[in-house]
Amino acid sequence: GESVGLHLPTLSVQEGDNSIINCAYSNSASDYFIWYKQESGKGPQFIIDIRSNMDKRQGQRVTVLLNKTVKHLSLQIAATQPGDSAVYFCAENMRAAGNKLTFGGGTRVLVKP
Amino acid sequence: DTEVTQTPKHLVMGMTNKKSLKCEQHMGHRAMYWYKQKAKKPPELMFVYSYEKLSINESVPSRFSPECPNSSLLNLHLHALQPEDSALYLCASSQDWGNQPQHFGDGTRLSIL
Known about the structure:
By secondary structure, chain A is mostly beta strands. Chain A has strands at residues 4-5, 10-14, 19-25, 32-38, 45-51, 56-58, 62-67, 72-77, 86-93, 102-103, 107-112.
């Protein structure tokens, strides 16, 4: 089965609230993780990445948290806006396993006005 | 706008046709990728090129033939495709192959009649 998965397939959030998207991964040797946003009719857009030697990384309105103990990754979006409505994918890479980026199943985020 | 350009955006072809998908990037990236994405699914890796050499072929059927003429261009030649090959074909590039963010184009929507 997939080594990367998501807990919630759809997340509805009120505009202005914070969003949290979760992702579980099964391979403890994965050493690099990326979050992508994919809008309808477009390719995945890079949001933020984190390496396994870190547990938190912040970008503009986004924060990625990595918990290696429970093999869990999350993306927090602050003050969610209508433009944040999209499908979000987490992806993991393991250099020792051939450097193949493996995507999770995706979570759809719907922002309600 | 994405910095990875894919053409055409849409392609409809019969099962006996031969066509090519094209991908171009001018970011100086040395790794380029082809992914296949079915509706409501995550992207799945097909091929990886690193420094213009094929590094990974994920057991893709021979009716898909990749080509990397130079460091900026990546082609995917199609011949005798099946209806189940209908999908969004995404190209991506990264500075190097490995733990680097991959940047995606908006894909070619392929329909096989």
